[in-house]
Amino acid sequence: MTLADYMTVSALLFLIGVFGALTRRNIIGILMSIELMFNAANLNLAAFDRFLHPEGLIGQALAVFVITVAAAEIVVGLALLLAIYRNTDTTYVEDFHLLKG
Amino acid sequence: MIEYAWLIPLIPVAASLIILFGAKEDPRSPLPWIGIGAMTVCLALAVSILWGFVSGGVALPYEKNWDWFSLATTIGGQSFVWTMPVGVLIDPPAAVLLFVVSLVSLMVQVYSIAYMHDDTRYKRYFAFVSFFTAAMLGLVVSSNILVGFMCWELMGLTSYLLIGFWFEREGPCEAQKKAFMTTKLGDSGLYLALLLLYAKTGTFQLTQLHQHFALGLVAPAAATVAAIGILLGAMGKSAQAPLMVWLPDAMEGPTPGSALIHAATMVAAGILVVSKLYFVFLAAPLAMEAAAWIGLITAFMAAAMALVSFDIKRVLAFSTVSQLGFMLCALGCGGYTAGLFHLTTHAFFKALLFLGAGSVIHSVHTNDMRQMGGLSRRMLLTFATMTVAVLAICGVWPFAGFYSKDMILVAAWNHEKWIFWPLLLTALMTAFYMTRLLTLTFLGDDRDHERFHHAHESPALITAPLLVLAFFSLTAGMAVAHDGLAARLFPKPTLSVAADAAAATPSASVAASAANNPQVQTPDAEQELPDWLKFGIPGVFVPGAMLLAFFMYRGPKFEAAEGLRSAFAPIATLLDRRWYLDDAFLALVAFCDGVAALAFWIDANIVDRVFVDGWGLLMRIIAEISSFFDGAFVDAAVDGVGGLSTDLGVGLRSLVAEGQVQEYMMYAAIAVSLAATLILTR
Amino acid sequence: MQNLSLLSPAMALSGLAVLVLLADMLVPPSRSRLLYHLGWASAAGTLAWLVAGLANPASRGAGSLWVVDAYAQFFGMTILLAAVLCLLMGLDYKALPERHAGTFTALMLLATSGLMILVSATDLLLIFVSLELVSLSSFVLVGFERGNPKSNEGAMKYFLFGAFSSAIMVYGISLYYGAAGTTHLIRGAAAPGPMLMLGLILILLGFGFKASLAPMHFWVPDAYEGAPTPVTTFLSVAPKIATFALLVRVFVSVLPAAQFDLQALVVLMALTTMTIGNFTAFFQNDAKRLLAYSSIAQAGYLLIGLAAGNGRGVEAVMMYSFIYLAMNVGAFAVVQAVGQDAGSCDLSSFDGLAQRSLGLALAMTFCLLSLAGIPPLAGFMGKLYIFSSAVETGHWWLATAGLLNSVASAYFYFRIAQRMFLRAPREGALPVAAGPYIYGAVAVAVVGVILFGVHPEPLIAGVRASAGLP
Amino acid sequence: MLSLITWAPLVGALLVLLIPKENVKAIQGVGFLAAGVSLLASLLLILSFDRSTAGFQFVEQWSWIPSFNVSYHLGVDGLSFPLVLLTTFMSFIALIGSMGIKERVKEYFFWFLILETGMLGVFVALDLILFYVFWEITLVPMYFLIGVWGGPKKEFAAIKFFLYTLSGSVFMLLAILAMYFNNPARTFDMIEMMKAGAAWSPRFQEIVFLGLYFGLAIKIPAFPFHTWLPLAHVEAPTPISVILAAVLLKMGVYGLLRLCYQMLPAGFAWFLPALVVIAVINIVYGALCAMAQTDMKKMVAYSSVNHMGYCLLGIAGMTAAGFSGAVLQMINHGIITGALFLLVGVIYDRAHTRDLSAFGGLAARVPVYFGLMALTCFASLGLPGLSGFVGEFLCFLGAFPLWKWQTTISVLGIIATAAFFLRMIQKVFLGAFNEKWEGHMPDMTPRELLSVAPLAVLTVLFGVYPKWPLDLMNATVVALLRK
């Protein structure tokens, strides 16, 4: 497997994530799609470390940071979702249209 | 006394202010006597000046100037501060006119004391009259044509006020507006002439202007344009064709006021200005010719109208116009002396005629001559004085009108036969319609017994002025014509350069060009009329016309006249409708209103839309577009941006659920990929 | 990890935040206002510390992932000032649940410290982390009114959009790393190439999210409307300013090294951001939403300074962001006062304010006029600086567009003024009842707006002194 | 001294803010005090104003924003000093007229005094940024003064006025910046600009000129940017109409002379042919539009368009007479039209209508009012002996040598002017008395008289003796054309 393959995969992952984020109607789904995008980045980082800069660790360090932060984000997101669910009994985005121009 | 000449216009101004603000309005107010007093002082000064000149004690022209204001100006690319003088310039004609104007005004005021008593605005009337006279005197004496123009316009104002004196009625209001607008139309010509003269000479001083012209520093073309402008002004003020429309309506004012307007001030001003700027005309033969012909045409048209009118004041008004035509024609023919001479004599007998007519109206309470007749038996004094006036205006020897009119005819004869003959005809028409007026009013039998029995002679305050004026109407001609005094009083200006004039002029170039001056004129030799005319006119023609009129109109019904009228019905109506000039004037007014309405429509519906609201509209459009991209579109529609956007908004809503996070993301993603491709593929 | 001490103010602030959280457990809910006081006091203290440190050159220097220069310090102070004012506003914001006072304060402080790190970060790693610190805390802050569905919804949208864009940014970072072999901005930029550039673009767009630049601005109105007003104020000021600080740093010191010219893109963004911000605001009927769009537009003006890109442009950005802080805080403070009084931030609640409490109305008017760039208020001086930088660098039509935009903006700013002065108040409407802290914030803001308008020289001098970038 | 004149009103405004709004008397007192101070100060300056020098006098210069070379630089010359006097005087008159304002007096005086400071500043500023700041300051108070105390369509009128004039001044700012960056001295100082201006390339000057002109033309207002004026005038309360006509419009013409002519000679010369055409359109077209009006106030508003045309024509003449005519016309128009608006306000207060056809025959009932109105109308239509004539005549005198035909057409425009004023007098005052107003038409109150009488006096005074205003400007005007 060459770097190109890894990058292709990660690009695909990223695009799938974007597509999902744009099309999923359920917030959980959107969150998962965004996770995919993060992980595409992680895959990139790891691959770069492995192929281009085997001497350094920055990529992996960064990946770890990303994973942590992503986790944190999911936490916050779910917390918000919970609050919303309490108020509106739904997790579907099209039900959120109080705020409009 | 002449060093006090500058007081002459100011005294009546002061008087009018005192009268106006002196006390509350009161029909029996004593204040008017102040005006009379002031005018008496003016008269005294004028007499002293005139007599001093005639008796050789005083040398004219007399000029004295003071600084008025200083003005930054640019002549020939050079900018500097130039001081505008104001002052008096009294040449012989001015001296004469000072006397005439102040005398007539004095008479009119005395007369008015009786005539206007217990009018609601008694006091205000006298204030106006004094101011009016002041303006005229100012024009007469001012050495600065700009000041002259100011007085000229102020006269327009006061005539406006006098004509519309009884503004509760509709007639006076229309008349005053008409008078002001028509004269204003002419004034714009004078206005432009002044601008042009200043542009060419850089001064408003009559003497300096005269020098510039005498030295031929002004191109003939410019002179012609300026002269025509001046002529326009004169046509407006002196009611020459076709701007004569306002004068007959001006009758709506109080009769003594009309006397003042017609005899001594307003209408005389036009002729006066032409005479003051006569050197411009001398440099512009074309304009001279125009003046002559316009004068002739006016004289004829007015006289023709006077033939058919039955309103005593209108007849007098038409006769005024006609006589002014004579004067302008004389000036145009080069008869400077004749024109001004007639101006003075005319002032006396026309004032007399109006005051007399006023006295008649005062006693019979109508203007319609068909309801008068035989009044000589009721008001002898008025009749006698009126007769003098009529004889004078008809040009019967030895009354004043004879001499002046004779001079005019001579001038016309010398200038152009084609002008002379119609002018002669007009003179005879004058004799006819004036006699007609006299006959209809005083002679024959009384047509309206009711009015006749209530008629009575007017009080002394009215008759005394009549007598005074009658005296002058009788004697003025003889006095002035006697041993060439006329030529001394009204010396014709020339374009020949006096050495001192050349010396006096500022620039050296002037003096240089003085040497080889193209247009030095020699006064043309006056030749007499052929004898058969010289003696035939006063001896045969004029009396003939008068007798004709007398016999046609002495009867109660004057069938002959009516017969003629019905025989020439179309002409009669043409004259009754005053040559349709009024209709033309009204059409012009209507046209202007139409244009105004159009202009405003354009302003409100095109200019405003395009240049002001256009901006707002543009903003709105951009706003709609940007809101479209922001998904706030529907709400924009709710905000009342317009129905169109609502439909679009609904359509949009069906495509993507707007106002929702995923739509936002989509826009973002699209933008990102666009930007990326854009930049990377560069 | 050398020179970590340079970041000590920021770290101290986060420490204080933790302290507040601890205090939260001790302080009884009845006395919870104490925590707010603690909050703004600690922010103010940090500010004081920072100011005191200015004189001492040891307070400046470069670390491995960060550099603390006068520039960073200037923005640090600006952000702290914003934090202080917003916390003051929070004191008088009724809708905040009393028992979460500690959390609220702590989150605000954390966000602030994150921003302070952000302005001095030179490494993508640090940038990413600090950005996330800010994002996470502000997600929560926006949704802080848990009972209020609007607040929830705004938070959710903000969160989803934020997560989305940060994911994009991270992907960009990964590409950058791949191309450069390091995440350090300045060192890494030496290796140009398509991958690096794609990475940079994605990163910049990630920044654009925080700075609310079109097309990453969509979350702004919703989040601003939903969030508690003090939070809205904070979001509209601090992150935006900090991100601009970062953007300027990147543009001045990184892109040239990467032989990478984004100017066309920036000009385009500036144009769209201004226009969309201003013209969409035309139709807003909620004061907070209207100001949200206005703040987008203001970001557009700041971008003009960025597009100019020269020294004057940098100074312009610094100066304008400082002035923007004053006028925006002032406007939002009044909105909070009026909105609380009327129970809604709908424009109609401003009707006849001039006759109810003239002081607030005038303060609002001054702030709005300043936002519209009408002299002699600070906003005009800022705009003058910005546009003169554009003119100087020959961006004629950009300056023209900006000025026309400010004319258009006057229209909707005056929609508020119109309601305050031209409309009659509701029957029996009393003067607005607002707490002293609001008035305090308003006073500070208005004084700034007027002072820097009539006497901008000190500010300009300060900006010039601290504009030097590596 | 100039600072005192300029800032006294602002100080007054701040003091007004401190007074509780119930205390109307005190508020008005402070207002009059402030305006009075600057009026007195400006009148005192007349004594020490040197009429023989063309340069700037009473100059004050302090550094303001050194980093931009912006200085607080004040000074007046023969061009601006008469306008300063006009401003202080008319503001005071307008304040007298404002005694009729009954509601929200505090805010009214606050905005009014700020407005006065702005107007004065425009005329005394010798630094472009300072100039622009003052220029803009006048806008905001105007918005509120029209919007709060105005007529039925006040909100629309106010915002239209504000946005439109603002969009104009934006281009002015651009032009100013362009001049700054092309000035080797890198300063906004006007005097420096005048020096630098000669060196700029014609092309550059033309572009900058257009920028400035757009801002100025809207204020003047020159066709086709004039349509905001009638609306603003009709909706504005009487004293504000007075200020608007008497002072604000003058700012445009002043700017045209001060900025365009003195700093961009080539650009000015380039635009001259267009300018004269615009002037003629203003005169004739303005008069025609006025003829078509039935609302007195709107008619007077359009007459302002017409009179500003005279100023433009005088300027376009490029002669000393024309320039002094333009300045004099500004003064006279300020006085006369101010009086006209006050008088229209008087009748509006009584009848609550301004429709010409609603009246008739008032002359006999309100002689004093009629007298003043007639005087003012005749002054406005340029009757010699009243001030209107002198300025107008000088404008024509100055324009004629260069623009013969255009001047001729404009002189004909005078007739239209006369026409609509006479019609107004006739419809309102003459003819039969309209019984509808029986008992509703008391003559002028002392306050109204107090506000109008001084203007009437000046109208006559400057008409027969224009020496005083002219002496103030002569030296400067000559110098303007020397360079």
Task: Throw out a few tags for this protein.
heterotetramer, A: 101 residues, mainly alpha, Helix Hairpins, C: 470 residues, 2 domains, two-stranded antiparallel sheet, 19 helices, 1% strand
Largest sheet of chain C: 2 strands, antiparallel
Number of strands of chain C: 2
| Widest β-sheet, arrangement of strands of chain C | 1-2
Distance between the termini of chain A: 50 Å
Quaternary state of the chains: heterotetramer
Succession of helices and strands of chain C: HHEEHHHHHHHHHHHHHHHHH
Task: Give average pLDDT of chain C, whole number.
Answer: 90
Separate helix tally of chain C:
19
Structure summary:
The complex is a heterotetramer of chains A (101), B (682), C (470) and D (483). Chain C has 470 residues and is mostly helical. Chain C has helices spanning 8-26, 33-54, 70-91, 101-120, 124-142, 149-180, 185-188, 194-211, 219-226, 229-254, 263-281, 287-308, 311-342, 353-356, 358-372, 378-392, 396-422, 436-454, 457-465, and strands at residues 61-62, 67-68.
Please, could you describe this protein's structure?
- The complex is a heterotetramer of chains A (101), B (682), C (470) and D (483).
- Chain A has one domain (3-95): Helix Hairpins, CATH 1.10.287.3510.
- Helix content of chain A is 76%, strand content 0%.
- Chain A has three helices and no strands.
- Chain A is elongated.
- The model of chain A has no long low-confidence stretch (mean pLDDT 87).
- Among the domains of chain B are: 286-489 and 530-576, no CATH class; 582-680, no CATH class.
- In chain B, strand 1 (62-75) and strand 2 (78-90) form a beta hairpin.
- Chain C is mainly α and 470 residues long.
- Chain C has two domains: 1-258, no CATH class; 262-470, no CATH class.
- The longest helix of chain C is centred in the middle third of the chain and has 32 residues, at 149-180.
- Chains in contact: A-B, A-C, B-C, B-D, C-D.
- The interface between A and B is medium-sized, with 12 and 17 residues.
Break the fold down into its secondary structure elements and pairings:
The complex is a heterotetramer of chains A (101), B (682), C (470) and D (483).
Chain A: H1 3-23, H2 27-51, H3 58-88
Chain B: H1 7-22, H2 32-54, E1 62-75, E2 78-90, H3 92-115, H4 122-141, H5 145-163, H6 170-201, H7 206-214, H8 220-237, H9 246-249, H10 255-264, H11 266-276, H12 278-282, H13 285-308, H14 312-332, H15 336-364, H16 380-394, H17 400-415, H18 417-442, H19 449-454, H20 460-481, H21 485-489, H22 499-504, H23 508-515, H24 531-553, H25 559-567, H26 569-576, H27 581-630, H28 633-638, H29 643-655, H30 661-680
Antiparallel strand pairs in B: 1-2
Helix pairs in contact in B: 1-2, 1-4, 2-3, 2-4, 3-4, 3-10, 3-15, 3-20, 4-5, 4-11, 5-6, 6-8, 8-11, 8-13, 10-11, 10-15, 11-14, 11-15, 13-14, 13-18, 14-15, 14-17, 14-18, 15-16, 15-17, 15-20, 16-18, 16-20, 17-18, 17-20, 18-24
Chain D: H1 2-18, H2 24-48, E1 57-65, E2 70-76, H3 80-98, H4 105-124, H5 128-137, H6 139-149, H7 154-181, H8 190-197, H9 202-219, H10 228-235, H11 238-263, H12 265-291, H13 296-316, H14 320-351, H15 367-380, H16 387-399, H17 404-429, H18 446-464, H19 467-482
Antiparallel strand pairs in D: 1-2
Helix pairs in contact in D: 1-2, 1-4, 2-3, 2-4, 3-4, 3-11, 3-14, 3-18, 4-5, 4-6, 5-7, 6-7, 7-9, 7-10, 9-11, 9-12, 10-13, 11-12, 11-13, 11-14, 12-13, 12-17, 13-14, 13-16, 13-17, 14-15, 14-16, 14-18, 14-19, 15-17, 15-18, 16-18
